[in-house]
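pasting for the record
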Amino acid sequence: MMTTPTVAETCSRYLDAWRSRDVEAILALHTGDSVFRLHVHGEQDAVGTDAVRTAFTSLFETWADLSFATVRLRYGSDYFVHEMDVWGTPLGLVDHVEGSTRGSDEPVHYDMVDVIEVRDGQIVRKDTYVDALAVIAATTATAAANQ
């Protein structure tokens, strides 16, 4: 008889999939109608497997060597909250003010929080909150230093 994984077990498997940067392993833990929203600058929800796959693939393409360290994990009956320190080298960030794209040769460090809803051992919704000001400051400083 199969049992439904606990929220903590689902969280552990999910974080392992993210650490491995394996989009298909990540998606295997999402429901077919899951929702992903990156809360940075008015981004729209990615809804369903194909849209979530595109969003996660784009994230890994934009952030070379993306990695994270857990600061805090909190669990509820149907969710977990993952606060983390994140590092990565941005290969192409869109400047929403200027409309240009800029990259960096230097790793950027920033804070991020995921609020993740779980149902029956799968991710139903993932909301990601990024310290965008830290990302902008770091990439702007790097760009200025390289000029």
